[in-house]
Structures are given as C-alpha cells and as structure tokens.
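== Sequence, structure tokens ==
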Amino acid sequence: MQRHHLRTLAALYAHPLQHGVRVSKVEALLRALGAEVSELDGRRLKIVMPGGQETWIRLGCGIQSPDLDSEAMLRVRHLLQEAGVTAEHPEPEADRHVEDHGRDRDGRLLHSPPPFVSV
C-alpha cells in the first residue's frame, strides 16, 4: 500500500476524529483496497468491499465541502473494521467476514464452539 493511502487510513482511525480528510483521498484508499465505489445520486457514494461488506456515505456540496464529515468518517471506519482493515493491519482479511459467525467463505467453521456444559 502506498504511503499516502497509509496516511489516509491513519487519519480515519485517529482518535479524536480528524477533520479535513478529503473525500477524494478516502475514495482512492478504498479503490486501492479493491472496493467498488459508485455514486448513488450525486450526494452519496456507495462502497462495496471485496468481502461483500457495504455502506454509503453522504458527500458535502462540491467545492464548498470536499472533506468527509464525522458521520461519514465513522461509517468508513466501521466498514474497514468489518473488512479487517486497521491502521496497524492495512490489508483486508480475505478469509473472514465479521457477519459470518466464525465461518470462512466456504462455510467451514473457523473455530470450535464452546463445549456444552449442563448444570
């Protein structure tokens, strides 16, 4: 991953939230991660990660607000977390989804369930 994408990723995970993160930089980061980014109605972007996780973010009004607002930053952060992308681990996890309840893409169990204990 290129250095400017790593900086954008660090800004998305910064605490407290950073302001001034450009939509274009986030869009470039998401495309570098293999996401499909499409415009919905001129004011929203739909983002679909390669693992199937998806969300949408609301955009500002053109040149007046080229930066993401706090809600959009949180939506992108949660989407990246679901895809297994963090500032410390910038590549998406290919084998696992958060919503898969411990199963890989083929449906195999990734971990054994806790043993049943009768009382």
Q: What stands out?
A: The longest helix spans residues 70-82. The helical segments are 3-12, 23-32, 70-82. Confidence is low (pLDDT under 50) at residues 95-99. Strands lie at 36-39, 44-48, 54-58.
